[in-house]
Request: fold
Amino acid sequence: MCSSFPERALSTALRVVALLLIFMGAGASAAPQRQLRVCADPNNLPFSNESRGGFENRIVDIVARELDATVTYVWWAQRRGFIRNTLKAGLCDLVPGIPMAVDMLRPTSPYYRSTYVFITREDGPDIRSLDDPRLRTLRIGVQLIGDDGANAPPVQSLARRGVVGNLQGFPVYGDYSRPDPSSPIIDAVAKGDVDVAIAWGPVAGYFAARQRVGLKLKPVLPMVDLPFNPMIFDISMGVRHEDRELRNAVNQALRQHRTEIEAILAEYGVPRIDGAETAGAR
Reply:
């Protein structure tokens, strides 16, 4: 009896160790994965939509993969008060596609720079400058920003030049009850309802490629209209001002996956402007 005791004790100890390992493994597998809470518009291609088909959705996935996090979305239409009602209200921690000049949040490093562009049919006028005298007589489609129809930068520059009576406005938000609400301004060029349109580059590039007729895009010149009215903007992601750690992690992800991100932007037809082009903006 006594000689068999050590054997039984060893067997019991081994079973205890095995059970502990099982429970430790179960505890590790049950540990919650990091969540990357993102606020975005559910109907705003080419940027984002609820099916996660926009280029911002795909870039967010890259960031989340680098952070070893799963993405959860809070969907909110990008209207006045978007940042206040989402990020500032604590509903999310990251907002993609934000101009760096927005003061309500802390921006990451920019991951692309784009510009407003002229859009014409392939057989239409070749417009490159806001100073082109033909703009005084052509039918021009322009984007109106915000619920109150505020003027986008190109519209402000045209108005300063006295080009106002031949403008046709297209709300940048469009008819939100339909898919692709920001596409009508590009559709209007393709159908010949306007002779030329001026639109934000990512919108123009994405929807121009989906028209049945050929369209051409030219960056709006001057890129910075004096006294100060830029047509080019650096686009970043935004976090709360106090979230320095998250900002740094996102910056690292954007740097490490720059080539992959640039390929996505090219796939969606996003016109990009680099520093060398901007240097001769005038």
